[in-house]
Design goal:
The protein is α/β, with parallel strands linked by helices and 258 residues long. The chain is built from ten helices and ten strands. It has helices spanning 42-49, 72-77, 95-101, 111-116, 119-138, 154-167, 184-200, 212-218, 236-241, 243-250; strands spanning 4-13, 16-26, 31-35, 57-62, 65-66, 80-82, 172-176, 204-208, 221-226, 229-234. It has a six-stranded mixed beta sheet with strand order 6-7-8-3-9-10, with helices on both faces. It has a four-stranded antiparallel beta sheet with strand order 2-1-4-5, covered by helices on one side. Helix 3 packs across helix 5 (119-138) and helix 5 (119-138) packs across helix 6 (154-167). The radius of gyration is 19 Å and the shape is globular.
């Protein structure tokens, strides 16, 4: 059974079709890239998979069960977590608190427990903080635990966002342009961190990225979107050699971000 299966996914904004008959099967442990020119529909795919948009047509299955129609928090609780093209952190909370709050769906206590601060509440809070601290260590962020994210360099904020997604203990991690805004040295560190996460946790990762070095280094399979349609799918080398891909990148594509 595929971890994630997307069947004939189509989405329209008014009279504009942003995505047409998109299909994907993600097997456990895969690392798959989704690339294409700006406006090709890449982030639209992620927004549909995570419940931020509802498709015009098609279905999305996680471990064989449809998740179409579910709200984002319900999708997250089932094991699908993501980062965003534009960083979305809680800047009034510390880095540690950002990673703790991302685990809310699995806290295991209710309102009464929180008010009474009973044993169930205290034990759950200890587990949550411990898990957050472990992720901070993995991401090289331990020394920033008490900092507000807005006070960190942009590259570090990106790492916090990846850590927050990882702290929710996902089965599938969606990374939307994680290398955006990073310098070459930070990108090298990011590649090694993501590779380690993938191998250490046997985690399935689905990546959108414009930095081809990141995609070609990490992904074992790549899909290419253009104007909302898949124009190529294959290994990194097959994608690099594909004439339709070369034309899409060198010959244009619409403007903006989708």
């Amino acid at each position: 059974m595929a971890l994630l299966e997307i069947r004939d996914l189509t989405h329209s904004f008014g009279g504009l079709t942003a995505l047409q008959d998109y299909r994907l099967k993600l097997e456990p442990g895969e690392f798959v890239g989704l690339i294409g020119p700006n406006g090709a529909g890449k982030t639209t795919v992620f927004n549909l998979a995570c419940g931020f948009y509802q498709p015009t047509r098609g279905d999305i299955l996680l471990l064989g069960e449809t998740i179409k129609g579910l709200r984002p928090h319900s999708v997250t609780s089932l094991g699908l977590s993501r980062t965003f093209q534009n960083i979305r952190l809680w800047n009034s909370l510390t880095v540690l608190e950002n990673l703790c709050i991302s685990q809310h769906s699995g806290l295991g206590y209710g309102l009464v427990d929180a008010v009474l601060r009973n044993r169930r509440f205290r034990e759950s809070e200890r587990r949550t903080i411990k898990a957050a601290e472990e992720v901070l260590e993995i991401m090289g962020l331990s020394r920033f635990a008490s900092e507000l994210p807005k006070n960190l360099p942009y590259g570090m904020q990106r790492r916090v966002e990846i850590g927050r997604a990882l702290a929710s203990r996902p089965k599938l991690l969606l990374l939307d342009e994680p290398a955006a805004g990073m310098n070459p040295g930070e990108i090298d560190q990011l590649i090694e961190t993501i590779r380690w996460i993938h191998e250490h946790f046997s985690l399935t990762i689905w990546l959108i990225e414009h930095h081809m070095r990141v995609v070609m280094t990490l992904c074992n399979r790549i899909q290419v979107l253009n104007f909302g349609r898949i124009i190529c799918e294959g290994s990194p080398q097959e994608v690099c050699d594909n004439e339709k891909v070369i034309e899409a990148y060198l010959g244009g594509g619409d403007s903006g971000n989708a």
